[in-house]
């Protein structure tokens, strides 16, 4: 006889998650190494990031000894409201207790329309030029949404070629990878879509590509308002001019707000820093905008492609092709509830405003404190998307040490700062990308001024120690140099990357 879910208990099911975790307390990394990704496990052990984390709360992680870590990686910008936010968790429990008719297939998705209404209201609020983003397509992850956005653009324009930016990161599915401007992710996977790479923040290069008629013209230009790899900011009028150029040449403008959107930069969308939605001549609106990450609340993967209605109508032209772009889990009830609860938390707890205030406080503090180090080139960012960029020191001995590490691997220098930040100060950070001397900080948006002070102190001490020889630079060279040498010979782990899923091995998780 079928099991009546209303009468089941943990005892009758015989499943004890807490007990299972306790029994395998020391098995997480060995199991990961044995059955999932041995190379990644080797990276974690090599750089000392094989910490046994047991809990997460707000902007922090806690290990099995109860030590607190300030997490400036934030699940690669997933945690806006922080880890295990009680309101989002309670909303998901409500959804499960209601026994909702999840994934009816051919039927009404009750919760999806509610989330779509919220997102369209946000888009309309920020785009007041009469061409609002007012239709939604839901997917599970960011890369999946980018694939859908590319399909929308190609179907709507009847063109194929897509232009993207050097150093862009849009995801690692084959479609998204076709517009990701980092060779380390693309190499070895064969042919991609018909795409062209240009420099970021270069209007002349974009205009030149838009004017080319080969292959039927350009379907779309895709870019991030602030590049995640390096935290590169555009000129103030760049995105507005991009919108104008695309419109003039019949191409669509796809804005990737997967990492930057929903408060990360101190505004609901990063494009607002550069005139998106503003009234008058300075205002502009993308044709397609993609969001994800923070929409999940850190619980259930969810992404959304927001489009102008005419684009949607070009894709879903009739009842016969109403499902020509779809995916199995895209509108599952838990994902939709996670999105609704996340937006509620952003609004009611003024988390976007906190990101703006504390982000500025963090950057000001870093600029003041680190100004005494000639190896610090720049502190930049918006909100709680912050980069500290380094340059070759002027002193002879430090310059030689810098050159040594860059000869071994261009990504190694930042490890002399990041590794002791983790081991000695319990601050988790990351390298901002392959071959970059940039440390990136993207904590949960509930990050406080007190947290910022701790991070500033930790970075000050760790950079200061790098001035000493022998010191952290020597230790990093000794510890990680052999891995870099093995990689040059084809067997190392030092070049695994800083995707949103995979860390720069000598950097962070």
3D structure, described in words:
It is a single chain. With 509 residues, this protein is α/β, with parallel strands linked by helices. Helices cover 40% and strands 14% of the residues. The protein has 19 helices and 15 strands. A seven-stranded mixed beta sheet has the order 4-10-9-8-7-5-6, sandwiched between helices. Strands 1-2-3-13 form a four-stranded mixed beta sheet. Strands 11-12-15-14 form a four-stranded antiparallel beta sheet, with helices on one face. Strand 11 and strand 12 form a beta hairpin. It starts with 9 loop residues before the first helix and ends in a 21-residue tail after the last helix. Residues 490-509 have low confidence and may be disordered.
Instruction: Give the overall average pLDDT.
Output: 88
- Based on Cα principal axes, name the global outline: globular
Multimeric status of the protein: single chain
Sheet with the most strands, sense and barrel status:
7 strands, mixed
Low-pLDDT segments, ≥5 res: 490-509
SS summary, helix count: 19
Tally of DSSP β-strands: 15
Instruction: Give, in spatial order, the strands making up the sheet with the most strands.
Output: 4-10-9-8-7-5-6
**Rg on CA atoms, Å:** 23 Å
Distance between the termini: 47 Å
- Which structural class fits the helix and strand makeup? alpha/beta
């Amino acid at each position: 006889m079928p099991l009546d879910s209303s009468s089941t208990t943990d005892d009758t099911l015989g499943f004890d998650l807490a007990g299972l975790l306790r029994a395998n307390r020391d098995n997480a990394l060995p199991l990961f190494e044995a059955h999932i990704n041995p190379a990644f496990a080797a990276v974690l052990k090599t750089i000392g990031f094989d910490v046994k984390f047991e809990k997460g709360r707000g902007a922090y992680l806690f290990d099995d000894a109860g030590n607190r870590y300030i997490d400036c990686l934030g699940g690669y910008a997933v945690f806006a409201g922080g880890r295990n936010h009680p309101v989002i968790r309670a909303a998901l429990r409500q959804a499960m207790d209601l026994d909702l008719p999840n994934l009816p297939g051919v039927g009404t998705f009750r919760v999806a329309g509610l989330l779509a209404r919220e997102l369209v209201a946000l888009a309309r609020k920020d785009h007041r030029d009469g061409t609002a983003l007012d239709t939604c397509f839901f997917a599970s992850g960011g890369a999946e949404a980018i694939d859908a956005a590319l399909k929308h653009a190609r179907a709507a324009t009847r063109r194929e070629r897509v232009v993207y930016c050097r150093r862009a990161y849009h995801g690692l599915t084959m479609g998204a990878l076709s517009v990701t401007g980092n060779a380390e992710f693309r190499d070895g996977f064969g042919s991609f879509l018909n795409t062209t790479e240009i420099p970021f923040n270069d209007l002349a290069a974009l205009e030149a590509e838009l004017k080319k008629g080969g292959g039927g013209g350009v379907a779309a230009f895709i870019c991030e308002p602030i590049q995640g790899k390096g935290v590169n900011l555009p000129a103030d009028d760049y995105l507005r001019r991009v919108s104008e150029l695309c419109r003039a040449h019949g191409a669509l403008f796809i804005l990737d707000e997967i990492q930057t959107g929903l408060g990360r930069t101190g505004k609901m969308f990063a494009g607002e820093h550069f005139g998106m939605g503003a009234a008058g001549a300075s205002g502009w609106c993308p044709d397609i905008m993609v969001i994800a990450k923070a929409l999940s609340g850190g619980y259930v993967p969810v992404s959304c492609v927001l489009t102008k209605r005419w684009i949607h109508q070009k894709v879903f032209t009739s009842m016969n092709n109403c499902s020509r772009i779809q995916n199995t889990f895209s509108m599952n009830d838990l994902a939709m509830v996670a999105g609704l609860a996340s937006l509620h938390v952003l609004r009611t707890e003024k988390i976007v405003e906190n990101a703006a205030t504390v982000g500025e406080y963090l950057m000001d503090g870093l600029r003041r404190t680190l100004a005494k180090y000639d190896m610090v080139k720049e502190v930049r960012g918006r909100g709680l998307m912050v980069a500290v960029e380094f340059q070759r020191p002027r002193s002879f001995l430090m310059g030689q040490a810098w050159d040594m590490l860059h000869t071994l691997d261009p990504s190694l220098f930042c490890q002399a700062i990041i590794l002791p930040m983790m081991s000695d100060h319990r601050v988790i950070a990351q390298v901002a990308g392959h071959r970059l001397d940039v440390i990136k900080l993207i904590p949960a948006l509930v990050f406080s001024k007190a947290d910022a002070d701790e991070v500033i102190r930790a970075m000050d001490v760790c950079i200061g120690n790098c001035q000493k020889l022998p010191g952290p630079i020597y230790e990093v060279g000794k510890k990680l140099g052999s891995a870099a040498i093995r990689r040059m010979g084809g067997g190392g782990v030092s070049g695994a990357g800083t995707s949103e899923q995979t860390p720069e091995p000598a950097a962070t998780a």
